[in-house]
């Protein structure tokens, strides 16, 4: 597959390996509501934050929506949106790799972008996600007015949509409910007791001899498929349509065959790639939403309207699913996800994580009525926890930071061994869990009590007797082991020494 080349692209492709796992430090002063709701607002560099989330949510994120800097050559108060082209690509590549690994197998990623980088972004996303997992390029009509000073007035931005696995995503993605304009296509000119309907033509493209039978209209006129076409189904199926009173031949009674599709039976519609400002909002709407929240004297550049994010989440998620935005900006994705009953993680590096995101989400918890609130019946509730990026879990020499808690190290050990995220509801126990028939244990930070040798961090007979039992192979991490090879073999134990045997990359 062709790949894109740019200055220092090799470093960008290896960047994830060099990113350290960092601790996430909660700040309850900026948190709000129910702190057990699992919603996370993280302040810090999003590359470090995404890497630090791996042991906890890898493979669990149902939908990623990001609105990265567009690299337009203009300057914004809250972003450097004038990054040189190769630097922009190097910024995006490792972040896309981590987002891919955080996605669930039936998850999807939606990236908002404009013409400045959209086509380059498409190429690197093909490389990261695989061309077969490209879903669509959605055109969003972000503006409804014209710029008379432009060569060609800009009306749209793009949403590049990829799935972790297109077949799995297609089987779970949602259709959209019909709106009033779409429902208006149905009428009831003959007062059919079954309600409003519309006529669906019976012919279809191509030529198949078994679908080219004659149809007789009520007036006695014989109809054949139009040139180059055939009927859409077999003659028996047509006769059943007629028997059910669904056949229709136009007002004259001898027109082209069609059948009635009733509004009451019409399923929700498949999403398409053109989203008008009437369907998904526009930039002026987004600015008004922000002004209501923060005042016209405290604006945020280039926000997205809540209806745009609502449409994405309607298609890509269900209540309870996990949504991630690693370029959170003013907090729109998290706000909409919260109102729609989704769990969320938002990452924002700048000071406006405190000045915009946290206050906005606090208002959401309290029941603010802007944006989509009335449309979805939002009345408040839930909560979120504010986190800051802390120290690296391991230093440059691989030693464990003494501030690391048992839970944090356990999550890393479990993830490095199994490739699966740690359960958030796991009890504090030296037994981390069982994976593929093997039990994993961690002796660290006196998990068994300081009365034992080295606070219970050394594997010996007394410590082993105090471990939760498991009848099968075991991997035990600890500072030291007092057993010989024969005893380890007899007990079916593979001992690994901390920190040296913990894979940190």
Write the layout of secondary structure elements.
Elements (H helix, E strand, L loop, with lengths): L8 H10 L3 E5 L5 E2 L6 E4 L2 H12 L3 E6 L18 H18 E11 L4 H12 L4 E7 L16 E7 L2 H7 L7 H4 L13 E5 L1 E3 L9 E2 L5 E2 L5 E3 L3 H9 L3 E2 L9 E5 L11 E2 L1 H4 L2 H12 L11 H11 L5 E4 L6 H8 L3 E6 L3 H15 L6 H4 L6 E10 L13 H13 L12 E5 L2 E5 L15 E2 L1 H5 L8 E5 L1 E2 L3 H6 L2 E5 L8
Helix pairs in contact: 1-3, 2-3, 3-4, 10-11, 11-12
CATH C-level class of the largest domain? Alpha Beta
Percent of residues in beta strands? 15-25%
Strands, total number: 24
Distance between the termini: 27 Å
The CATH H-level homologous superfamily of the largest domain: Vaccinia Virus protein VP39
Q: What's the average pLDDT?
A: 89
Helix residue percentage: 25-40%
Instruction: List the uncertain runs.
Output: none
Q: Briefly, what is this?
A:
The protein has 505 residues and is an alpha/beta fold. It is built from 16 helices and 24 strands.
Task: Give descriptors for this structure.
single chain; 505 residues; alpha/beta; Rossmann fold; 3 domains; eleven-stranded mixed beta sheet; four-stranded mixed beta sheet; 16 helices; 24 strands; 22% strand; globular
Structure characterization notes:
This protein has 505 residues and is an alpha/beta fold. The protein has three domains: 9-177 and 270-392, Rossmann fold; 180-265, no CATH class; 406-497, no CATH class. Helices cover 30% and strands 22% of the residues. It has 16 helices and 24 strands. The protein has helices at residues 9-18, 46-57, 85-102, 118-129, 166-172, 180-183, 235-243, 277-280, 283-294, 306-316, 332-339, 352-366, 373-376, 406-418, 461-465, 485-490, and strands spanning 22-26, 32-33, 40-43, 61-66, 103-113, 134-140, 157-163, 197-201, 203-205, 215-216, 222-223, 229-231, 247-248, 258-262, 274-275, 322-325, 343-348, 383-392, 431-435, 438-442, 458-459, 474-478, 480-481, 493-497. The strands form six sheets. Strands 1, 2, 3, 4, 5, 6, 7, 15, 16, 17 and 18 form an eleven-stranded mixed beta sheet that branches. Helix 3 (85-102) links the parallel strand 4 and strand 5 (103-113). Helix 2 runs parallel beside helix 3 (85-102).
């Amino acid at each position: 597959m062709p790949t894109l080349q740019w200055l220092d692209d090799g470093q960008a492709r290896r960047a994830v390996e060099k990113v350290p796992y960092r601790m996430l430090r909660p700040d309850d002063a900026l948190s709000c509501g129910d702190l057990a709701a699992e919603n996370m607002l993280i302040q810090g560099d999003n590359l470090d934050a995404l890497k630090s989330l791996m042991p906890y949510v890898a493979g669990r994120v149902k939908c990623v929506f990001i609105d990265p800097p567009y690299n337009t050559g203009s300057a914004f108060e809250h972003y450097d949106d004038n990054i040189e082209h190769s630097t922009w690509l190097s910024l995006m590549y490792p972040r896309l790799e981590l987002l891919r690994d955080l996605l669930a197998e039936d998850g999807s990623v939606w990236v908002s972008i404009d013409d400045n980088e959209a086509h380059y972004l498409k190429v690197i996303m093909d490389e990261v996600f695989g061309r077969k997992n490209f879903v669509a390029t959605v055109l969003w009509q972000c503006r409804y007015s014209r710029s008379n000073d432009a060569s060609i007035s800009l009306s749209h931005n793009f949403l590049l949509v990829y799935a972790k696995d297109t077949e799995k995503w297609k089987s779970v993605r949602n259709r959209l409910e019909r709106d009033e304009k779409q429902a208006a296509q149905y009428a009831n000119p003959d007062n059919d007791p079954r309600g409003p309907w519309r006529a669906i033509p019976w012919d279809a493209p191509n030529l198949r001899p078994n679908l080219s039978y004659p149809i007789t209209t009520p007036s006695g006129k014989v109809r054949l498929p139009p040139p180059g076409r055939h009927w859409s189904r077999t003659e028996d199926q047509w006769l059943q349509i007629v028997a059910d009173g669904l056949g229709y031949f136009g007002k004259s009674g001898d027109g082209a065959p069609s059948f009635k599709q009733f509004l009451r039976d019409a399923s929700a519609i498949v999403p398409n790639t053109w989203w008008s400002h009437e369907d998904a909002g526009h930039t002026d709407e987004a600015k008004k939403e922000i002004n209501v929240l923060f005042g016209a004297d405290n604006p945020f550049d280039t926000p997205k309207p809540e209806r745009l994010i609502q449409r994405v989440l309607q298609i890509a998620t269900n209540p309870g699913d996990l949504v991630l935005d690693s370029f959170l900006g003013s907090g729109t994705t998290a706000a909409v996800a919260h109102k729609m009953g989704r769990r969320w993680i938002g990452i924002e590096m700048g000071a406006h994580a405190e000045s915009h995101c946290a206050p906005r989400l606090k208002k959401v918890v309290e029941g603010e009525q802007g944006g989509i609130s009335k449309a979805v019946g939002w009345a408040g509730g839930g909560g979120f926890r504010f986190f800051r990026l802390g120290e690296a879990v391991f230093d440059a020499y691989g030693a464990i930071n003494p501030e690391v808690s048992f839970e944090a190290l356990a999550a890393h050990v479990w993830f490095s061994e199994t490739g699966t995220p740690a359960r958030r509801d796991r009890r504090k126990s030296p037994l981390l869990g069982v994976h593929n028939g093997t039990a994993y244990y961690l002796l660290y930070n006196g998990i068994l009590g300081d009365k034992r040798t080295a606070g219970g961090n050394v594997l010996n007979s007394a410590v082993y007797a105090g471990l939760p039992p498991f009848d099968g192979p075991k991997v035990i991490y600890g500072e030291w082991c007092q057993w010989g090879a024969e005893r380890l073999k007899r007990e079916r134990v593979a001992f690994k020494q901390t920190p040296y045997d913990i894979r940190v990359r």
